[in-house]
Amino acid sequence: MGNGNLPKPTQPCLSGTLGGNVDHRLHRRLFLKGSMAGAASVASFQSLFSVPAFADSVKARGKRCILLWLCGAPSQFETWDPKIGKPTSGPFGAIPTSIPGIHVSSLMPKCASILDKLTIVRSMSTEPKEHLQAIDMLTRGEPPRPPFTRPILGSVLAQQLGQLDSPVPQFVLLEPCPEGNEFKSFKAANWAGWLGAEYGPVRFGGQYKIENVKLPEGLSDVDHADREALRSFLSRKFSNDRKNAAVQSYNAVFERVNGLMKAAPLFDLNALPKEDRERYGPGLFAQYSLLARHLVENGSTFVMVANGMPWDCHVLNHETHQMLVPEMDRVVFHLIHDLEQRGMLNDTLVLIMGEFGRTPYLNEARGRDHYPDAWSLAMAGCGLKPGVVYGATDDFGIQVSENPVDQRRLFATIYAALGLDPHQTYDLPGFPTFHRVEQSAAPIRELLA
After folding, report:
1. Which segments of 188-316 does DSSP mark as H helices, in order?
2. Within 10 Å of residue 388's Cβ, how many Cβ atoms?
3. Can you tell me whether residue 445 is helix, strand or coil?
4. Residue 173, number of CB atoms within 10 A of its CB
5. Nearest to 82 by CA among 93, 72, 73
6. Residue pLDDT tens, the chain, 449 long
7. How many Å apart are CA 355 and CA 55, to the nearest integer?
8. Cis amide leading into 147 (omega within 30)
9. How much is the pTM?
């Protein structure tokens, strides 16, 4: 991104050959055409959105998704599926909601007031019991099948719904606490899998920052545009001559990074209205949830907000949820309200979930352990029926008693809500046949609008 050590292209290089190799001949008129286009592209990113036609086309371009990832896994008993008066229930009780006869934890008064805008699944039942394996499966939709790496949900949506040539990153990961143990290991993995690196995420938050977005001192916009035009031309020629997917993927990533220089102002939390930042709350999870709204509003297709491992409540479950649930309650309330007010909720799918649930009974440390057998999640927006509570667990929350949902049916529902065929096959020459959702798992029709 604007490396000051690169030699500035000179006139002889434009009209003659580079390094004497006939493959590197460059027509001066063609180069200058690219250079002028490059110079135009270094205009302020924010100025693009001052043009109403451009701004409107971005906001109307298609469907988006925000995933609020509650890493570590929240307890369903202290959130979406309280068991009133049962020994498995916590001390917080339950409160009525805007859906008659449906209660949620008393820690969630704001969500209770808008439950008629949400879609709740109380009958999730999955298999992995450890964080790394569960996170991997619940974000990809399938268990591992070495040596093949299935792309994560965000990569699929970036490819299917996004605009790869947009300066705005199509898949963004906002991670306030990147030091989380299991989740940190997961994030080092191959996100985009067989789709290619261009569909991987731009990571931001914690120690990760969008750095080096300004040109080095002494390098003008025109000089930078000249260099980019030369690099782009030579890269395209190299790629066309060799027809190599890895080269094409590398070039796509370079183009995205170059565009990110222009999009960097979108990631400035301090540039967002003070009243919005105060509404969402001071915590980084809250602030990055607000930033997620801002990013999808300005062109991102998929934004995942993760929060390290704070929900992993093996010790002092009740105290942990007493601290964490009110923030989540406030964030979901304002996010849904803001998307609705902006006319974006019908085109934006919001997912609120972790990797599994928590045990019905407390352990010796007054915590709840990992429990994938019966747990809950929430969704809202694009393609979903609002005000639906699907499935149920028994009186003690030990087993699913109605309409079990595994990860395949969940992913089929997500894809269907976003207008994608869940059973579409990937075009992977030389690979076995893979589908977006395997085993013909059906979407949950009761949840789809």
Report:
1. 221-242, 245-263, 274-280, 284-297
2. 19
3. helix
4. 25
5. 93
6. 444 343 333 333 333 333 334 333 344 444 344 444 443 443 444 444 444 544 444 443 589 999 999 999 999 999 999 999 999 998 999 999 999 999 999 999 999 999 999 999 999 999 999 999 999 999 999 999 999 999 999 999 999 999 877 889 999 999 876 555 445 545 556 899 999 888 989 888 876 567 767 777 887 878 777 777 787 777 777 777 776 666 666 666 666 666 677 788 889 888 999 999 999 999 999 999 999 999 999 999 999 999 877 899 999 999 999 999 999 999 999 999 999 999 999 999 999 999 999 999 999 999 999 999 999 999 999 999 999 999 999 999 999 999 999 999 999 999 999 999 999 999 998 899 999 999 999 999 999 99
7. 36
8. yes
9. 0.82
Sign of CA dihedral 349, 355, 360, 361: negative
Q: Which residue has the tokens 């499935």?
A: 391
As a whole number of angstroms, the distance between CA 373 and CA 210 comes to 40
In angstroms, the CA 141 to CA 304 distance is: 16
Contacts 24+ apart (CB under 8 A), 145-151: 148/193, 148/194, 148/431, 148/432, 148/434, 149/189, 149/190, 149/193, 149/194, 150/193, 150/194, 150/434, 151/191, 151/192, 151/193, 151/194, 151/195, 151/199
Supply 263's token pair: 């999009």
Distance separating alpha carbons of residues 331 and 412, to the nearest angstrom? 26
Which residues face 96 on adjacent strands? Answer: 103
Query: CA-CA distances (angstroms) from residue 68 to 112, 300, 305, 333?
Result: 18, 15, 5, 13
